[in-house]
Amino acid sequence: MAEGSYHHGNLRAALLERAEAVLTESGPAGLSLRGLARDLGVSHAAPTRHFRDRQALLDALAVSGFTEFNRRLGEAADGPGGVERRLEALGRAYLGFAVERHALLHLMFAAKHEERSSEELRQLGHHSLDIASRLLAEAQTAGAVRPGDPARLAQVAFSTVHGLAVLAVGGLLDETPLDEAGDLALRVLLAGLRPPA
Amino acid sequence: MAEGSYHHGNLRAALLERAEAVLTESGPAGLSLRGLARDLGVSHAAPTRHFRDRQALLDALAVSGFTEFNRRLGEAADGPGGVERRLEALGRAYLGFAVERHALLHLMFAAKHEERSSEELRQLGHHSLDIASRLLAEAQTAGAVRPGDPARLAQVAFSTVHGLAVLAVGGLLDETPLDEAGDLALRVLLAGLRPPA
DNA sequence: ACCTGAACACCGTTCAAGT
DNA sequence: ACCTGAACACCGTTCAAGT
To answer: Are A165 and A103 in contact (CB under 8 A)?
Structure first.
């Protein structure tokens, strides 16, 4: 239980959870510490005990988002099947997360972060790229992907998938279902990565 | 001249210009109507004469950004050279704008817009995609690009370039110069778009 | 037309004080 | 440890009033 140990019990986790919901519903402009405190029934100063300021809460949310994101990417990369199938699964895992939790993904990739936690965020971002990089290196030895620095190829692969997610969330895809757009994007990407004949 | 006709002369344009600068320097959180008014030496209520509210100013900025963006894309698409060279130029024009004016591009593709102007923004966004679509259709008849709905292929092409720009601005590219990352991304993309052998 | 100045309800942040 | 309540300096928005 541990509910209501003092006034709330687990204010930190509750703040993060509520913050993502508000971010998803109303965007960054609609998120205020005072509003969160109201929603959770604590005084407006209570969040300060857990997050030094508004940005610290956003950073913590980005960190927890990246952790979950990387967990999902790793799962796809280590899944069943040959390397090409796992590359595809990786792309789909990315797109799935991006659409499901687009507010969070946006926060994760936003440029502005507090000095003190940006290092952790950068490392988490690198880990995402490393997962793709590792899989691409495996695909290279299998002869399914062109030679070249796999880290750079991972940047290209991420670009395609990330850009598609942004277009989808921004409404630029119109009536095209994301699944179909994702299919085509992954097909074009994998064809482009294949070794030149 | 027309400077200082009443108090400022061209407050609307001055607000937009200053707003983009603030957005670039300090991000959306650092942008306030009151701050802009202070910077320009007018009362805090003066901006309301030109923009009903904060969002209206952001929308107007996004519209002007898209107009310039589309102008540049159109220039690249109608430039000299064969269709493949112009496709490359289109990609470079996109990346150039994205990095030069990343705060503006971000605003342009942000999902949240006022009801009354989102239609105009959507149309401008479509026009960007149409430029790519038109060029891809031309490349298809020249046999340089695989068959299929050029509008969908344009979505894929935009995804790659847009995603790369986001990664660059977000600091995920590390020491990789954007030019090099852009080269590789465009090469992979164009290879992926080529008709299957 | 265009801008001012006061007003209102919000916000982030700080800090002494309570339990 | 964790939270409260008051305080301060900000903010967006509105509106009567000035020129």
So the answer is: no
Percentage of residues of chain A with pLDDT beyond 90: 76
Look at residues B181, B169, B170, B171 and name the one whose alpha carbon lies nearest to residue B102: B169
pTM, two decimals, is 0.90
| pLDDT number for residue A1 | 32
Lowest-confidence region among A74-88, A105-119, B152-166, B168-182: A105-119
Please answer yes or no on whether A110 and B185 come within 8 Å at the CB atom. no
- Distance set, CA B101 to CA B22, B40, B97 (Å): 12, 22, 6
**Nearest C-alpha of chain B: how many angstroms from A17?**
22
Residue A113: both structure tokens together: 């972060």
Closest nucleotide to the alpha carbon of A43, via C1': D4
Residue ending a domain, choose from A52, A71, A87: A52
For chain A, the 3-state helix, strand and coil shares in percent, each to the nearest 5, are: 75, 0, 25
| Pair (A74, A126) in one structural domain | yes
Name the domain count of chain A. 2
* A182 shares a domain with A103: yes
Residue A15: domain span: 1-52
B143 and B79 share one domain: yes
Residue B169 confidence (pLDDT)? 86
| Residue A7 confidence (pLDDT) | 56
Q: Are A89 and A19 within one domain? A: no
Residues of chain B with pLDDT under 50: 1-6
Most distant pair of Cα atoms in chain B: their distance? 67
Q: Which of residues 97-156 of A touch B (CB under 8 A)?
A: 102, 109-112, 122, 125-126, 129, 148, 152-153, 155-156
Same domain, A105 and A135: yes
